[in-house]
C-alpha cells in the first residue's frame, strides 16, 4: 500500500556482508579483489539480496586485515584502485543493489600519515590527533585498560617518552575524537565516499570512539578467568559508550542525511537499553541500525531465543528499526556452532524475524567448521591469545564457487585454505540442488520479498511445545506463522485460536503437505486463514 514508498529500502531489504579478501580473486594473487566482486554480482542478484556491505578495502598494512586503515580515501592496491571501485559501484547500482562501505573511525593504522606525524614529536601539530599519556610514576601504563586482542591497551613510545592508546592492536592507535580537527577530517572521509555515490556505511566499533576524559581504571570483572577472552578481564566502563560518542554519532547521521537516503549501521555490543540509545532521538537521530548480534551470542535454545526476541523488540524505540545478524567475519560460522540441520533453521529465523537481516558470505552454503593448520592461520587475535578460542580465520575462508581448481576462487593459492568439503559444498553444486542450503536461502529471500508480513509485518511470539520456537508475522490481511523446531525429534505445534493453516509456504526440509506436527530439525513458514 502507500507505505511501500515511505519506507527506506533497508526496512524490506537484506544486507549481504562481503569479506573482500575471500569473495573472488581476479588476478591470481590468492586474495579477493574489487574486480572479483564485480564478476560475481549476478550471483548476488540471483540470491535475492538488496545491498552489499564490503569489509574495509582501503590501503592497509593488513595487521588486522584491513581494519588498520593507512589512508581512508583510496583503495588498497591488492583490491584495485579508485577506478575499479567506481566501476564496481556503477555495476552494483546498475543491478539495483546498494553498496555500503566499512568506516573505521576508532583507530587508524600506525602507518597512517596522521599517526606518523603524531608520533614524530610531542609538539607535532597532529600529536593530539591520537591519545597520548604519560607513564605512571612507576613507568607503567596510564591505567588498566585492556586491548580487545589481549594485553595492555597502552603502547610505550620510547622516542617521545609517552604511551599511546590502542583498543585493538598496537598497530591500530586510537584517534582522539575530542579533537575538532579529527572530527572534521573524518567528516571529510565520509563526504569523499558519499560524493562518489556510496549508499551508506557500516561503522566499525562505534561505541569505542570516545573515552572518559579522566582515563580512570576500568572495573575488574570478578568472573573472568584466563580461559576466556583477555578483553573481558575488565568491564569497559570508561573506555566505551561515552555521551560524547553519541553526539558524534548524531553528527555522522546529519551528514549522511544531507545526502538523501543513506544508511548508517553501527557496530555496537551493549545490553539492550544502552544499545537502543544509539538510535538517538527523533529530533537528533544517530545510526539507523545499531547492529544486533544477539543471535550470535545466545545459546541455541527456545527459552533463550524467545527472551532475546521479546527483550530486543521491547527495547526498540517507536521510530527505530530492528536488525538481526547470524554470522560475520568475527564470529564462528553458524553451521559450525549448531550443525548444518539447525543452521537451516537459523537461516529461516534470520530471514523471518522483524528487522533488517545481514547475511554473511558463505553462510548461504552452510560452511561449517574448517580445520586450519596452525601454519596457515593468519588472524592476529589467534596468535595473541593462544589457547583461547578467539581465532577468526575459520569464518574468513574463501568462497567456494565451483569444483574447478581452488574452487574457482583464484587461479593461485588462496590466502587461507578452503573448506575441506569444497568439491561438493560450492555455489555451482548447491545452485543445482533443490535441497541445498543455497536453494533454501534463495527461496526464503524470495519469500520475504513476496510477503510484506515477513519484512515489515508485526511480530508476536506464540506459545508452543518445548523446543519449538514460534511467532506470528502479520501485515494487513496476511498472517504468517513461523514454526522452528530446534530439536532432533518431531513435535506438535500450536496454531493461534481462530486460525487454521492454509498453506505451507516454506519448509527447511523437502516440500510437504499441511500436518499438525513439525519434523525434527524442521522450520516452517505457514500461511494462516481464519477458521470458518
Ligand atoms: C571490529 C571488526 C573486527 C576488527 C575490529 C577492530 O570488531 O569487525 O574485525 O578486528 O573491529 O577494527
Ligand atoms: Mg586478487
Could you please describe the fold and organization of this structure?
Strands 9-8-7-3-2-1-11-10 form an 8-stranded parallel β-sheet. Helix 12 (340-352) packs parallel to helix 15 (437-450). The chain is globular. The protein has helices at residues 3-6, 34-39, 41-47, 82-94, 113-118, 180-196, 243-257, 272-276, 294-297, 302-315, 334-338, 340-352, 380-384, 427-431, 437-450, 452-455, and strands at 15-18, 51-54, 98-103, 132-133, 154-157, 162-165, 200-203, 263-266, 289-290, 323-325, 356-360, 458-462, 468-475, 478-485, 491-492, 499-507, 517-518, 523-530. Strand 2 (51-54), helix 4 (82-94) and strand 3 form a beta-alpha-beta unit. The mean pLDDT is 97. The chain is of the alpha/beta class and 532 residues long. The structure holds alpha-D-glucopyranose (GLC) and magnesium ion. Residues 64, 67, 104, 168, 204-205, 267, 329-330 line the site of alpha-D-glucopyranose (GLC).
Name the descriptors.
5-stranded antiparallel sheet, alpha/beta, 18 strands, binds magnesium ion, 532 residues
Secondary structure layout:
Elements: H1 3-6, E1 15-18, H2 34-39, H3 41-47, E2 51-54, H4 82-94, E3 98-103, H5 113-118, E4 132-133, E5 154-157, E6 162-165, H6 180-196, E7 200-203, H7 243-257, E8 263-266, H8 272-276, E9 289-290, H9 294-297, H10 302-315, E10 323-325, H11 334-338, H12 340-352, E11 356-360, H13 380-384, H14 427-431, H15 437-450, H16 452-455, E12 458-462, E13 468-475, E14 478-485, E15 491-492, E16 499-507, E17 517-518, E18 523-530
Parallel strand pairs: 1-2, 1-11, 2-3, 3-7, 7-8, 8-9, 10-11
Antiparallel strand pairs: 4-6, 5-6, 12-13, 13-14, 14-18, 15-17, 16-18
Helix pairs in contact: 6-7, 12-15
